[in-house]
Amino acid sequence: MDTRVKICGINSQQSSEAAVAAGAQYLGFVFFPKSPRNVSLELARDLALDVPVGVAKVALVVNSTDEALDQLTDTVPIDILQLHGSEDLERVKAIRARYGLPVMKAVGVSSPQDVKALDAYGLVSDQVLVDAKAPKGAALPGGNGLAFDWRLISKRGWNAPWMLAGGLTPENVVQAIQLTGAKQVDVSSGVESAPGVKDPKKIKAFIDAIRAA
Ligand SMILES: O=C(O)c1ccccc1N[C@@H]1O[C@H](COP(=O)(O)O)[C@@H](O)[C@H]1O
Description:
Blueprint lengths: L3 E5 L4 H10 L3 E6 L9 H9 L6 E6 L4 H10 L4 E4 L5 H11 L3 E7 L2 H13 L2 E6 L29 E3 L8 H8 L3 E4 L4 E3 L2 E2 L1 H13 L1
Parallel strand pairs: 1-2, 1-8, 2-3, 3-4, 4-5, 5-6, 6-7
Antiparallel strand pairs: 9-10
This protein binds the ligand O=C(O)c1ccccc1N[C@@H]1O[C@H](COP(=O)(O)O)[C@@H](O)[C@H]1O.
Ligand LGQLAAA5 binds next to β2, β6 and β8.
């Protein structure tokens, strides 16, 4: 399978190099202080500067203000903004216009109603990220290692390219792709040895499983 892969939660040179060596097309940097994967602007800048041309650097933010996004985009050479909070359609449009960067809006899914919300976001985003909905009261709106019922989006498409996320692992990613038809997948917890600690062997196993299928 030639599915494109995003490894999210890159927070060290080792994890960045492991993801690139394994063949990831996207590296995600988390800018959300409550996350165990949170990176400072300075560390993200240093890591991003070393990423080879052709691998996209994605900044994951959650309900960020313009001030925070100004600082981020002034400091870190990023290629895509991933909006993983409760940003509404107007906010997505405003961010896209202000920064001139491709925007990927994440939407949490646990029911057919959630899937409908993706239609509207697909009209204002460059990509949509279809993730599992975080449980009520969870500290993080994503990155919880939880999958959703993939049958909810089986054979679906949106007005923008889309990426599948939520609880993917080296063991289940091929089945998830086969069921949903995803051409892009995103993983964080499933390639870690502990929250916030990427495991180079699991990163390689994740991408190898896809390529071997
Ligand atoms: O990874 C995080 O810490 C995170 C924090 C806040 C919002 C989203 C986050 N991660 C994203 O969540 C999905 C699913 O992750 P997982 O594979 O289930 O752990 C993925 O898009 C991550 O980029």
